[in-house]
Amino acid sequence: MFDSLKRHSQKAGEAPGTATYSGNAKSFAPSLLRIDYSPDALEETSEAFPFSSLGERRMDNRFLLLTGLHEGEQVLAVGEWFGMHPLAMEDVLNTGHRPSFEEYDDHIVLTFRQVQYDPDVVRLKETHAALFCSERDVVGFLEEPSGLWEGVITRLRKGKTRIRRLGSLYLTIALLDAMVDGYFSALSSISADVEALEAALEDNPAEERSLKRIYELKRTVVALRNSLLPAQQALGALHRSEVVEMSSDVEPYFADVKGHADQVVEAAQAVLELLSSMLDLQISLAGMRMNNVMRFLTIIATIFIPLTFIAGIYGMNFTHMPELHWRYGYAAVLGLMVLVGAGMVRYFRNNRWL
Amino acid sequence: MFDSLKRHSQKAGEAPGTATYSGNAKSFAPSLLRIDYSPDALEETSEAFPFSSLGERRMDNRFLLLTGLHEGEQVLAVGEWFGMHPLAMEDVLNTGHRPSFEEYDDHIVLTFRQVQYDPDVVRLKETHAALFCSERDVVGFLEEPSGLWEGVITRLRKGKTRIRRLGSLYLTIALLDAMVDGYFSALSSISADVEALEAALEDNPAEERSLKRIYELKRTVVALRNSLLPAQQALGALHRSEVVEMSSDVEPYFADVKGHADQVVEAAQAVLELLSSMLDLQISLAGMRMNNVMRFLTIIATIFIPLTFIAGIYGMNFTHMPELHWRYGYAAVLGLMVLVGAGMVRYFRNNRWL
Amino acid sequence: MFDSLKRHSQKAGEAPGTATYSGNAKSFAPSLLRIDYSPDALEETSEAFPFSSLGERRMDNRFLLLTGLHEGEQVLAVGEWFGMHPLAMEDVLNTGHRPSFEEYDDHIVLTFRQVQYDPDVVRLKETHAALFCSERDVVGFLEEPSGLWEGVITRLRKGKTRIRRLGSLYLTIALLDAMVDGYFSALSSISADVEALEAALEDNPAEERSLKRIYELKRTVVALRNSLLPAQQALGALHRSEVVEMSSDVEPYFADVKGHADQVVEAAQAVLELLSSMLDLQISLAGMRMNNVMRFLTIIATIFIPLTFIAGIYGMNFTHMPELHWRYGYAAVLGLMVLVGAGMVRYFRNNRWL
Amino acid sequence: MFDSLKRHSQKAGEAPGTATYSGNAKSFAPSLLRIDYSPDALEETSEAFPFSSLGERRMDNRFLLLTGLHEGEQVLAVGEWFGMHPLAMEDVLNTGHRPSFEEYDDHIVLTFRQVQYDPDVVRLKETHAALFCSERDVVGFLEEPSGLWEGVITRLRKGKTRIRRLGSLYLTIALLDAMVDGYFSALSSISADVEALEAALEDNPAEERSLKRIYELKRTVVALRNSLLPAQQALGALHRSEVVEMSSDVEPYFADVKGHADQVVEAAQAVLELLSSMLDLQISLAGMRMNNVMRFLTIIATIFIPLTFIAGIYGMNFTHMPELHWRYGYAAVLGLMVLVGAGMVRYFRNNRWL
Amino acid sequence: MFDSLKRHSQKAGEAPGTATYSGNAKSFAPSLLRIDYSPDALEETSEAFPFSSLGERRMDNRFLLLTGLHEGEQVLAVGEWFGMHPLAMEDVLNTGHRPSFEEYDDHIVLTFRQVQYDPDVVRLKETHAALFCSERDVVGFLEEPSGLWEGVITRLRKGKTRIRRLGSLYLTIALLDAMVDGYFSALSSISADVEALEAALEDNPAEERSLKRIYELKRTVVALRNSLLPAQQALGALHRSEVVEMSSDVEPYFADVKGHADQVVEAAQAVLELLSSMLDLQISLAGMRMNNVMRFLTIIATIFIPLTFIAGIYGMNFTHMPELHWRYGYAAVLGLMVLVGAGMVRYFRNNRWL
Fold it and tell me: Which of C257, C285, C316 sits opposite D208 (nearest CB)?
């Protein structure tokens, strides 16, 4: 979150539509995967930066995957080749951009974030991603190399599948589905951590470390939800779009993706509620246990303080203290002490304090 | 909740519409109940896995109940026989699927969860269920054997009732009503537990165990509500559907089911508010009682500490301590102690600390 | 709330539209009041259970008031006479039914709850009520005898008033107004209790009893609001209804009733906020007072503990303790004690701890 | 709030449209100010209760201001003269009425509350006010004498201003603007008190008195917001009204008033959030300071308790205690005490407890 | 916030549309920058107060920037020259005015606030700004000199850019974008402070100072969000406006600005949630650490109090205390003390209290 604010504010003062890369410098060379396909055939080429010219589309459809956005010029070249709007190119390059859906005359552009959960530091790693979709072309942009779209590409390579037949909008939906699946996996891992923590808390009373962990998990789930919410909005905007006409072949699959996104948001909300309850319970239990310990200790002190006072009295050095010289004075005092102590213990017991 | 996340994320990376069973392995054989019926006649057959061929519809309407979804192939065979959409079959088999309503060209599919409250572990057991409804056929899918639809089937068997006359949409509504009734029963049992707990708390101050129980009850009600909410949405979608035209015969019954679902959600919300208030009250009361105990103990200590100090003074061994040799020195000091003690008790009384 | 859940879940498994009484057994005999009226004339008959036949309407309009729903057969007979829909009759008899508005071909049915506040146990007593309204007939159903509609009936008996002229919809509105007025009175009594409690808390610090009372009041207001909310929705649905055409004569009166219901809900919300603030304040004040007491006590102990230590030193029995034999050793030690004590008091004062 | 509930519930059971005064008895005589005006001329008469007949309108427009509603008959006479609807007259006389907007065939009636902040008791004084507006007449009703509309009347008296030209709707808007300005002033005074309190809290730690003050301020702002919210709704209803056609001359001024009302509500919300944060902070700080004090005191006690124990050992009267007779036994024990004390101080320092 | 309330309430009682400056007196002279431009040419003049006559537009478009609003007459003169509505001029001069969008016959006026974050006092400085836009003219009003629109003016000066071509609406959008960028920068600085604070809290336990800082940061973010929210609404109103027809050239840029505003509001919300969590965690951790310290100290006291009691017994001066004369009495008592002490330590260890 902070990261995206920082990236964005670097751009303050620029004209809108000024497309410059806003992320961190990267150490890998951008790569470009190109797949031309029709229901019956598929041709795949792949090259590293700098890319040679794009050339014409060779079959019915084309899918490009550009990994690495830090060579802005190259990204712009790709964008211009497909006739992307300047603002769209800005959105693609602005790695702090909020997930969004924008429609232009003959193409749409979706930006979103790819998430990965790192259980060791309890953080969500977010990278920027974008999708360009026109009638016959789809271009995917990834800030960093990742296996996000592996599965989709594998399905594309298999012959005569739905993905080869149903055109670029279906491909876009499949790519978006993979994005939502990423959120699913992340939330699922987080939930596993939450469950493990809950089990661990059963055995061990609340400690500083547990509180911090609950806090970190909450923070991560909030980040996940906040990252998905605008993506959910973008999917809704795509659905209501009048530019994009979804065929009845494709629509159910899109509804499916939207349903998945809704489910992740709901589940994230539920995990959050659970974590909040857990935190409240742990704090209450910690307070209650602490109180029990303190009460026990205070009771012990309270029993011995009057006894010590009695001992103090007969430790005084007055010349005229008749009890001191009684034959059974000492025994009597000891008996008195036992009586007082037993009386107090009984009183505390009766009041259920002990 | 976690369970459904886990089931779902197992499927990540698959093509949408890939229908595979996502639940746990089961030890029972799936069974298929088939009822052909018209207002005047009814024919019932029942068989265990593997099922023989389905054959033609023999009367006006047909109801199939498939219990056990873990033989995916068999489920797909049933689905294909009725011309279910691939995505619909995926929804039926995906036991982690969110309650949903989907409409296709000539049929609708509803998925939802059947809930059962287990008071011993204070957990909600959720199993997956689905309903397929076309003009003349209704197919119910249950993940596990259950009495959920016993009542409806019994009504179906009775001759010349509304359920025999009003067609497959009315039957679907009756089956949905049974599902909502399940939520009613679960919430009602939970409420009974809440009331019992409330009564128990009257007698016994808040303890760790009670806090945990409130927390578990809250968690269960949250799960129940979260499980019903999307079902409520699905009912709303069915109501607004343009594919399904409800006759004015059927519509009031559907409005009735929706009203029941609303009532459960509202009641769940109210139980949640009650549990939150109860928790807050218990924590406050526990704190207050603890404070009272501590105050009492501290006051006792505070009274004796100055007295012990006085005894300590006259326990010093100075050669020249004139008081030690006075005739009534001892009595005077004892008197002083009584005065100091009584003064302090009085002061504490005046300040209402005691 | 729990009550209505229980009543409802008794009905689980029944066919929708199965009208059976779901409340507790009652010890009084149902009674039926019948008023036939036109602007100029009024005829009133009243009979106890079992009722004789209803007979024809004798004037322009007719109002029936049936008190006691536990003789289900009789209620059904009345309902059938007026051509009520089976589901409507179920709603009337289901005393756990959520406040609702249902429209059928030629009549509407409203169910709601009549509330009474019992200040002794700080509980809201809710009973079931329903209204049937067709073009010329109004039937009121009350679960228990009550003065709810006394005022309206009195107005009806007076000659040539608006209520005699404006037909059955206006009468229904007047009856609903009385229902909302019941909420007004209940909330007003609760508010008086809240004010009394607030005044009492001014004088007395927070005690367990006060916390419990605030909690009970909150609970009661929540119940009142939760009971009115669906009634408010039902009024809204009646307003938007296309079946019921309100004449411009009647509409302002209906808007008035809706405005009253809104005002009760808003006021309930405000009372709730006030109670929450009050609770928070009381808990904070209790904590603060407790802290002050504990600080005072601890300071006393802290002052005397070092002094007792000094006395302890000179109470040791070493052979060689020169100070013990000094002429003014005792006085010097007493002086030292005074100095140490005064220094500590001063230090605490400076730090504003005392 | 409680006040308006009480006033309202006095009316329970009456027929809607029964116009009776519901406020407290007043000691002043109602007065009636009448202003006939046209862009070029103005005639003003003023009389005390009882009022003589109203007579005809003498110029283009007429404004009446009736102060004091406790002579219900007189108010009704005025209302009837202008053809007010019975329900409208009820709203005017019902001083507990919720701010509302009602439209009738040829006139509209707005009721609202005039607020004044009394900083001494930290309470909001609310009085009832109403506005009747027909094509050429405006009648203002005030429960008590107040300067609320002084400014508007002064502007009216000045010649040839917009207010003389733009007719009765513009006048109504100006009067409503004065009402909203009253909320502005009240909130502004409250905010000044909040700021003063915040500055005072900088210097002084949280005390019981401050907590109570924050609570009272919160309560007052909540009352102000709750009082304005329905007025805001009423303004919205007036805006959407199809009866009232606003000319493009008048509309911007109305939008301005609505904007002001929005601003007050937002500012009230912001003040509330601020007060809540302030309260939380004060409670946390108080707890933290208390903890620091207690920790310091407990550490002192903890240091001296073991030392006192050592002194206690050598205060025992055993015959055979060799150390007592050592030459440097006393010095050694004193040294031991210093060592133990210093060691403990060091340990506490290292743990940052001191 | 308080500031704008104060400014506004100074104006209470004035007629709407009375345009008077409501801010503080300023020490600088207002200045006027004028830029006439067309795609190919640009002419720039600049003068200080008092301004000479405005003269005719010299090219296609004109942009005026008026810095300093405290010479109300001058501002009015400018406003009148462009035919601004009286209410619009009031909004421009009312420096406490809520961000708003108003449309008049041939021009629109937007008011908003320019924010700057001052990290030293953790406050948001807000100044008033307004934009007038007609078909060919744009006038910007700034309460104080600032670099807010530097970047836009620089882009304007550069030849043949989009900003020179796309007319006055595009210029307005660019100026609004700079305003939103200001919020971005402010929030970004605040976030940096939040991150720094979070890192600092890792090392140091919660202290009074940290709590206050979190509170101040929260307060600042709330102010920022509250200041942007109505601006966001104003942008929405501009978007839905029927007076302003956005060409498809300009619309994507406007959507971009709105998206940015949404992103700031979301990010502010996320920062707020983070700060709240942080505060809760710090308070919990502080309580937990405090509890640990207190428990440790109390345990030490609890161990020594019984030992001191034993020493007290043998410090009594009874004549007949046989143990005192035993050969190994002293050693036995010391041994007993060690045993008791060790037993208690062991008991505390077993209970995990130590």
Answer: C285
